[in-house]
What does this fold into?
Amino acid sequence: MLVLGIESSCDETGAALVKDGRYILSNVVASQTEIHNRYGGVVPEVASRQQLTTILPVLEMALEQAGCSWEKIDAVAATYGPGLAGSLLVGLTVGKTLALAHTLPFLGVNHLEAHIYANWLRQENTLIASSTPEHWGYQEGDPVFPLICLIVSGAHSELVFVPEHGHYQLLGRTRDDAAGEAFDKVARILGLGYPGGPAIQKAAQRAEEELLHQQKSVAQARNSYRLPRAWLRGCYDFSFSGLKTAMLHLAEGATESNDGKQVSQYTRMGVQAAQQGIPNVALLASSFQEAIVDVLAVKTRLAAQEYRVKQVVLAGGVAANTSLRARLQQELSPLHIHLSFPAVSLCTDNAAMIASAAFFHLSLGEQHGLDLDVQPGLSLPFIKKSE
Ligand code: KG4
Ligand code: ZN
It folds into this structure.
């Protein structure tokens, strides 16, 4: 089954052709980060108007790169939530119109569910020979149910138990900022630009590589500032706002402490390292990243143990973070729990994941009517514990 996926929930415009929910024929993404970088974050009206001008060229490119004609396409899918209403409207309208024009089934896709299904995507273009429904079930390399999923994106941080396709049980969520949001806000505090996640990762790597170069441990960078972790013991919820506030206070004092003034017990190690030629911003980035990764990795491991799963999947933009991937691997390997995460380009918003999630619903015979509206506040369709 060949599905055309369309993504336009925020500031990325995507179109992709994916076979059987796994095999990418084309996946084109146009990003607006350079435009929003000027404002230090996404400006909704700018984002939706940009979607409008970009979507058709992106779509044409995806069709061209896949080298396929409309006769080969079996269904059209587009994100209908969660996201920015104006941005969602563009992709959803284009998707429904194309389905109508080519008399194809249409499916609206939940963006969060699609992030999870990015774990089913293969990078290589290899196509399986057969596309009969018998081959649509489990295929080698697919994540194995039951599993625990950690969704960490710009707007969401959720720990979810997934017993089978399409069943989601919420274990915990952020009580304030999402992990990606914390990365973005702290990057702004540190003057590192937007999007914050990749910028903080790069700055942290700079500090850690420099310490390695000096034959010291990376832990020195990661612990150079003693930052708070909201463990919220006894539950799987997260909270990152205290950490953000601590970063704000530290960043305000960081430049002064760089030249030796106002050395508090919290900054002493940072100052020592700074005197060894590592910028304070890089040490702050490394310590901040470590504080976030610490909580995410430990809570995910605890959930995997409690729910006795053999598989954990990472989803959302923050899943691209190399420290988070490495730390989770460290937590889960001794327990023989398999960790999977999408390729970096498939962690952030893209349309291949939309086509993948759509495939698993379409193969169950589901589709939406052309009267489907956008749902900016959509969440995963959670089941209760007893269901
Ligand atoms: O999933 P996504 O592309 O968009 C949403 O659905 O929100 O996630 C975007 C978020 C941004 O907050 C961005 O800073 C973060 O993912 N991000 C990262 C990394 N790459 C992207 N955070 C940490 N490390 C990264 N390497
Ligand atoms: Zn996303």
